[in-house]
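User: For my dataset I need records formatted as: sequence, then structure tokens, nothing else. Please produce one.
Assistant:
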Amino acid sequence: MDTQNLSAPSCAQPRIPRGITHINVRQTSRYTVIGNHLAQHRELSLLAIGLGAHIQSLPSGARVDIKSLTARFPEGETRIASALRELEAHGYLSRTRERLPSGQVVTHTVSYNQPRESAVQRARAALAGLRHPERARVDPLRPLRRDPILTRAQGAPDGPITCVEPSVGSPTARADSPVEPPTPPVGTPPAPAVPPPPSGETPAHTRHKPPLPTPQTPGPDGDRTAVDLLAGLHRYDPRLLLAERDVLRLAPAVTAWLERGPTPEAVRRALTADLPEPLRHPAALLAHRLTELLPPPLPATLPPAHRDPLQNCDGCDRAFRAPEPGHCRACRHRPRPEGAA
């Protein structure tokens, strides 16, 4: 027997020592040609690339709305919607809303196997023009506008990009050319300048503060009770320690509360309940509560009805009410005996 050659390889070595090896079979039916610009896109996510390939493989008229795609794939609505926005931003998809004659609004989706000029490319071109103004050219009849697809993809607010338009007489104006400020039309008087408010004057938005309530019948007893109530609030909460001038300023408002019926304890609870944290201006807070939480006045009390005095009946000695002494109702209606005068 011959000796086995130990230096011979055990099996054939692949041509490519590492990485993937393709075994391609020529497709004759049910296939879709997809460009490497989509399959190997550097900025699209894997979900967006796969979704773009799936959409390009569908026949015209197939439903590609978010709910249909969510029912087809295990991904949720949020990820599907994000992938669709990526495809829109890079020019592989466009979605427009159209109103049917019946009034129903539908979304018309167009898929591009060769991406059109994407919103990302337009944004990069605009950014390059801002960085290098000498390379930019501005068309006076076509101002720059923010692309709504890129706006939705990047989360920026909608709205046009402000662009300086050159004058009509210079169609070849450059983007870096100086722009003269617009001149007002002839004959239009300039708008008068609004003078600033004098120093120390209260601004307009702080002038209309509601005044503190005032008592209808001020008296020393009511003021004394109100002063004692305000001066003792710090016993219930140390933050409600008021200055003397604040106590004297708020005392008439407390007197107005007491005139409307609540007891001093009820007023104290209304002023000290649910205090904010932190409490920086206790006097201002008490003034606000005394003004905004003022209880309604008590209903007017009717005078007591007039009642006749009690009288003793002259016939039966029964007590009854009458303006003058005499007989009661029973004695007046009782039949008189015969022969009585």
